C-alpha cells in the first residue's frame, strides 16, 4: 500500500504569500488555460480562468546531482491539500507519467524509472516498492519532466 503526497500546506501558503521559489524568485502570477495546469497541492487541474502561480520547485532537502528542479503550478488562491488513497485528478488526466524510485539518500535507484499510463501506475508503484532499496517514488510529467507528486509507502 502507498500514499500520494501533495506539497505541504505550509510550503504552498508561503508561495501563495510571495515566498521565493527554488531559484530565489517570487512565483509568477498568471491565469490558468485549463488543461495542463495541475496544482501540486490539491492535485487537481486548475480551472480555466483561475489565477495560478508558476515557480521553480526543488522536491529535495538540498542540492546534489540528482536533485531535479523544475516548474510547477499552484492555485494562486488557497486550496485544500490532497489526502486519501484514491488517484488524484492530476495523475489520471495525461496519457502517461514518468515514475522513478529514490533511495533514502535521495538518489535515483537505477532500473526503477518507467513511463506508465494511468491505469498501470498502481501496479508499477507496487513493483518499484518491492525493491528494498527504494524509499519513495516521484511522479513526473513524461513529456515535460515536471514534478507532480511524491509516493510513499504506507
Automatic annotation (TrEMBL):
Protein name, entry field: DUF1203 domain-containing protein
Classification of source organism: Bacteria, Pseudomonadati, Pseudomonadota, Alphaproteobacteria, Rhodobacterales
Amino acid at each position: 500500500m502507498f500514499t500520494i503526497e501533495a506539497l505541504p500546506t505550509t510550503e504552498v501558503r508561503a508561495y501563495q504569500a510571495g515566498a521565493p521559489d527554488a531559484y530565489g524568485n517570487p512565483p509568477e502570477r498568471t491565469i490558468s488555460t485549463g488543461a495542463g495546469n495541475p496544482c501540486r497541492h490539491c492535485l487537481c487541474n486548475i480551472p480555466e480562468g483561475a489565477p495560478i502561480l508558476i515557480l521553480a520547485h526543488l522536491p529535495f532537502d538540498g542540492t546534489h546531482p540528482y536533485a531535479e528542479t523544475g516548474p510547477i503550478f499552484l492555485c494562486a488562491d488557497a486550496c485544500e491539500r490532497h489526502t486519501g488513497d484514491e488517484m488524484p485528478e492530476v495523475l489520471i488526466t495525461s496519457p502517461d507519467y514518468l515514475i522513478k524510485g529514490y533511495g533514502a539518500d535521495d538518489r535515483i535507484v537505477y532500473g526503477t524509472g518507467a513511463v506508465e499510463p494511468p491505469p498501470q501506475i498502481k501496479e508499477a508503484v507496487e513493483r518499484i516498492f518491492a525493491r528494498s532499496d527504494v524509499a519513495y517514488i516521484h511522479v513526473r510529467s513524461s513529456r515535460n519532466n515536471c514534478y507532480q507528486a511524491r509516493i510513499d509507502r504506507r
